[in-house]
Amino acid sequence: KNTGKISLDQIDALSVKSFPLCMRQLHRALRDSHHLRHGGRMQYGLFLKGIGLTLEQALEFWKKEFIRGKVDADKFDKGYAYSIRHSYGKEGKRTDYTPYSCMKIIMSNPPSQGDYHGVKCTNTVIVRCPFRHSDPELLKQKLQSYKISPSGITQVLELVKGMHYQLACQKYFELTHDVDDIGFSLNHPNQYFTESQKLLSG
Ligand code: SF4
């Protein structure tokens, strides 16, 4: 188990280096708007659990961010904390929820407008799988802002066009880690993270 391996102040840097695009965008949206709606909280929260955040760390992480927005500490403790404990199997039926796979994320319905910014809909960060659910033009702009080369962007967009979303994600991995062939077949955001960490630390 990874539990307890990550400290909260590493998350910003890790989100840039080792998170798949879906989680990188959710992290950014959370930092920018200090809120995520339920779907995004589940997708991102379970991912963080998968990379090793303990329940205590998760509660601290979400609370710190939410109280910078419109949620006060009391409201957080009464409402959101429950669902976080729940996702760690500490409430309700005590199901220990596992992080979503790419398939589950890709097969979800596209997010409706505002299903992730909660407070003010000022950004257009797309959650779920950005290769599947983003408008290609927005995806292109996003990749440009991440300094992906024009030829790399073309390759990613070709794969998206052919509906090969996970292959597009693999290509994004190769481009951002400067490898020719990732040598595994991607099916889970947490796998992406683990492989990235292996590569960067090895
Ligand atoms: Fe996330 Fe999987 Fe989509 Fe990659 S293919 S962005 S890991 S959901």
3D structure, described in words:
- Belongs to the eukaryotic-type primase large subunit family.
- It comes from Cyanoderma ruficeps (rufous-capped babbler).
- Residues 13-193 form the DNA primase large subunit C-terminal domain.
- By secondary structure, the chain is an all-alpha fold.
- The protein has one domain.
- The protein contains eleven helices and no strands.
- It has helices at residues 11-17, 21-33, 38-51, 55-66, 73-87, 102-107, 130-133, 136-145, 150-161, 165-177, 189-201.
- It is globular and about 50 Å long.
- The protein binds iron/sulfur cluster.
Unique bound compounds: iron/sulfur cluster
Task: Report the biggest beta sheet as strand number plus sense, adding barrel if it closes.
Answer: none
How would you state the average pLDDT, rounded?
A: 88
CA-CA gap between termini? 19 Å
Number of helices: 11
Strand content bin: under 5%
Report the radius of gyration as a whole number of Å: 17 Å
Structural class: mainly alpha
The beta-strand count equals 0
Oligomer: single chain
**Contiguous uncertain segments of 5+ residues:** 114-126
The outline comes out as globular
Helix and strand pattern: HHHHHHHHHHH
Helix share, percent:
55-70%
Summed up, the domain count is 1
